[in-house]
Structures
1.
Amino acid sequence: MKKIIKFNNPEYLLLFFLAFLYYVFVLSENHSSLDFNYQYFLYDYHFGFIKRALIGSILNFIFPNLSESIFINLSIVILFIFGFYIVKLIDNINFKNAFFGYFLVALLVISPALLKNFWFDLGRLDIFGAFFCLFFLLPVRKSILNIFLLLSPLVLFIHEGFFLLWIPSYYICWLIRNNIIINKFIIVYSCFFILLTFLTLFGISYFGKLNVTFDVFQSYINSKTETVLFLDSTVLTDKLYDQIISSLISNFTHIKFWFLGLANLFSIVYIGKIFLKIVSASFRKYKIIFLPLILTFFMFFLGCDALRWFSNMCFSFYILLICIMISNKNNLHEDNVSKNDLYFLIFILLVLLPFKNLGLLWY
């Protein structure tokens, strides 16, 4: 326990704690539609196997009457543990220059694509997908990492969208921790992982249906809360073709999508380029970290939350960047970074500071 609480750089924790107070007391009044997010925590397997009900089934077992206040407090706790965990991982990296550690923590709490957006979009399930990705950054034996990889398709029971949002990131993290060496073992494990992932996705897509009419299901959900929730039936019943058409129209016709999303994505990727210099990492070797960005882009055709997908893109890249640094933490060389690079890192933090969040497309 002492190891978990002890920080090599307590300033990292202070920076995170001050930012977290801001989230709780300022952003708490500006998060997106509470009813829509709250319902995800109420879905369970009461009427049989349905999509996205794993978290709700677990929470409803612990909290039979999950009130709105419990939901909000639970979201605060989950966000705090998640952020604390990342800050602790950064603290364990042996930076030759303390500035780089401060920058990564500051980026985590300031960028509207990272923790700010997770809080503004309170209660979404995306944070659970990101949380599982951090398991691959733990200082554990490679055999444990292999188990994490084979278990990772289970996150699809939380949200089938993780197939594009987070599953690729798990695989890339696993490859980085194995030093991206392609051998017979890596190929066999990769095949098992891909097979399990597609079998799980097929099972959820084909069998994850309601056994009752949606009106009955909605009445059941509303019986578990004091507030009246107007559930979105498309979460469980929409056809893929209709989703694609709706998403294309909504995602690609908004200025906010192109301005905020691309600005944040560019800054995060450029920051990654600078930090690859610090670890003397070959871009050619680690260019695979861009694969999750490409695959996540397909979510813009399957869901209407354009800036939410951008946030997942940026968070995936951020975690992969930390994964590279953890795997190369004894090879950090600040001499590889020019003064212009350092000035840019400071400048980008100042630019990001006024933006509260990316938020949903229509907010």
2.
Amino acid sequence: MKKSWFLGLVVLLTCLCGFQPPTEAAFAYKPVAFVLLDNTGEVNKDIASSWYEQVRQAYHVPYYEIIKTDTPRQVALEVLAASKEPVARLTPAVFKEIAQKVPAEVVVLVALRQMQQRLVYSTGFRWHDEGGEMLEEVRVVADLYVYRTDTQQLLGQKIRYWETEEVPVSTPAPEVVKWELRRLVNKMEHREQI
């Protein structure tokens, strides 16, 4: 009887004092800047979303949060214009400046320069606009970067893809960028490549 009375008193005092044991760990969100620079005009909302999803899967809540405003893109354009460096040869210093101005802990940049798909016809070893077997020609030129401020590590991937294959086995141009972006963020985070 005395033990239950004492336990009741402890519970009552705990409630009156407002003490609550911690139920979950407090996480400090690390902002992630996803920047898409499309110089082709070929990227629609669905394509951009599929690329965004690759970044979101690598940098997800509760540790990371992707910035949903256009601020990272505007800052990146300003910094790139001021640096006058070609996008194909960006340095960690450029990404450090972008990360500081956004601010962000991780900067993922996709600079798309060419993305085309067209049907061509094959007659032997030549491609023509008519006659012969139908093939699909896919061309992609893009530069992908991932930069982390905590390690000051920059990984880059140049995509120079030009394939002509049968239509059923041809990889669509947006998928080429999507899977290379996924490989790059997984490599940065030391995750298993799929």
3.
Amino acid sequence: MKRYYSIFCPLLCVLLISCGGNDGPGGGKTNGDDDGDGILVPEAGKILPDWSEGYLDIHAINTGRGESSLLIFPDGTTMLIDAASSDIDENDDIPPPALKPAGSDPATTITNYVSHFIEAASGKLNYMMISHWHGDHIGGPPEPATMEIHSSYKYILCGATRVGATIRVDKFIDRGTTYPRNMSTAYPAVSNYLRFVDWAKTEYGSEREEAVVGVTDQLVLKENPGKYSNFMIRTLMSSGVAWTGYGTTVKSTFPADINEVLAASFDENKYSIAFHLRYGMFDFYTGGDLSYSNRSKWSWYDVEAPVAAVIPKIEVMKAHHHGTGDCNSDVFLGKSKPDAIIIHVWRDVQPNPATVTRMFAANSNCNIFTTNMTENNKNVLGTTLTSKIKSMNGHIVVRVDPGGDKYNIYVLNDNDENYVVQKIFGPYQCN
């Protein structure tokens, strides 16, 4: 068994490559065959089969704008992490890639994707987590001409609020709205979100909680509690509070003097929620937009360091801050040594060459997947790095087998909403 917070004896994960090939399409039976358990096995060119009991699904949803991830736990409990929408267009100084599908509304694309894949699970969202308050995670407002406002609660439908207005959400989890200042004043999206949550409480009986660091009883199985004792989620960091690695003890990594915090250049990314998910021997990590920028000026600005101190060896990781140049430090990657990294790319400067180089330096066999890649950034990265990236466009789905001993990674066509498998990678065995 892995020790959860050990930093002295990390175990290496051995990648077992199927005969169908780790580097491209193949590796599956025909769509309609099963693996002996009645489970449809994905095949390139066919629609990804539904989630099934016992499997863990992690979906990186690509809209071309911001970031959104859907998780389906082994019992069918569901969680959406972020639901971005953005009004940034192709003429921006740092242009985004094309919308996926072309001309679509990102929040509607997320809604349709989630609705499709949760049908076989809980049929709703048991949890919606907002990692932090930036628009590329919670959703930016649309142009005034297309703005939809709820008649009674006066919230604007965009990003997370549009998704939640269509799909029932039982519980919202966020980093809080009062630290280090009134975030409703700092970000209109926050006050909009709170108006929406008030509506959801009335409409669905929804709840809202701030992320609780260090515990394993906040994000739990809801559809069949107790069935999968080898599944757990622990929040490692939120709003500068970090788990120490011991029991449920936490510490603040920011200065005690709030004036000192406010005197520093405010960076909402630093307040992101990070958590570690374990299912059997499979470990997944996500940490919003945590970064180490400006650590030479303020040492506490390196918010990756406290997480690196407690993170175990990781099978699959969502890259911090879209793989830009101020994140995924050598220290963090050297501790986590991820076997696969998913990078949610939505700007022309993502991912950064130095960041990708650090990823391969930490684990030369790392499998990197990006949801997008602009032609300009391919040139910036160069052929040496781009040739090593497994896939550069599409929805990315990690499907972990029952028990958590092995997993496959699928890349889905994002040009329409048919969810056809384009590439298959794996299976990968975990230790």
